[in-house]
């Protein structure tokens, strides 16, 4: 009866080495497994915060729950990007997709649009030369 109801949790102690910089002495100390697991993956929290701050989706709103929605959406997109990047997937050119392009691809996938959306901005030099040649020949634009 005693072995059937064993409880497992992260309070199990494991050995961890500690560095004493003053005495230059290394000792093994008992450490909870929860702390070891946290230390092993704590870099992902820093990476999430760093990537989230690059292209943040914070929208001002008078409704408090809407800001929480944008925050959770932003975190879920960054987490999806980290998982996507850890799978070593590359684009057609062989380079990793940056976060901005990943968010754009997710948005375009959700609305079902093409990736070839014309961008606003300056006219390319080829298009500008075509326009100038049409104007010079007397054709209307």
Reported for the largest beta sheet, the result is: 2 strands, antiparallel
Number of helices: 4
Between the first and last Cα atoms, what is the distance in angstroms?
Answer: 89 Å
Give the low-confidence spans.
Answer: none
- Average pLDDT over all residues: 74
Instruction: Give the class from helix and strand content and strand pairing.
Output: mainly alpha
Element order, helices and strands?
A: EEHHHH
* Approximate strand percentage: 5-15%
Shape: elongated
The share of residues in helices is 40-55%
Number of separate domains: 2
Keywords: Membrane, Transmembrane, Transmembrane helix
Pfam families: DDE_Tnp_1_7
InterPro entries: PGBD
Domain PiggyBac transposable element-derived protein: 20-81
General description of the model:
The protein is built from 4 helices and 2 strands; from the N terminus they run ββαααα. With 141 residues, it is mainly alpha-helical. The mean pLDDT is 74. The protein folds into 2 domains: 44 residues, no CATH class; 56 residues, no CATH class. Helix content is 50%, strand content 11%.
Highlighted features:
4 helices; 141 residues; mainly alpha; 2 domains; single chain; two-stranded antiparallel ribbon; elongated
Q: Can I get a quick summary?
A:
By secondary structure, this protein is mostly helical.
Note the topology.
Blueprint: E1 13-20, E2 25-32, H1 33-54, H2 64-86, H3 99-111, H4 125-137
Antiparallel strand pairs: 1-2
């Amino acid at each position: 009866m005693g072995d059937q109801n064993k409880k497992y949790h992260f309070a199990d102690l494991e050995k961890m080495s500690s560095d004493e910089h003053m005495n230059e002495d290394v000792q093994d100390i008992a450490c909870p497994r929860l702390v070891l697991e946290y230390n092993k993956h704590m870099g992902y929290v820093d990476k999430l915060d760093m990537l989230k701050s690059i292209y943040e989706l914070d929208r001002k709103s008078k409704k408090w729950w809407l800001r929480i929605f944008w925050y959770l959406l932003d975190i879920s997109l960054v987490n999806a990007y980290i998982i996507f990047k850890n799978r070593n997937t590359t684009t057609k050119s062989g380079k990793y997709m940056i976060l901005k392009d990943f968010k754009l691809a997710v948005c375009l996938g959700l609305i079902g649009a093409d990736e070839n959306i014309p961008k606003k901005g300056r006219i390319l030099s080829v298009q500008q030369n075509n326009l100038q040649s049409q104007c010079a020949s007397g054709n209307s634009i």
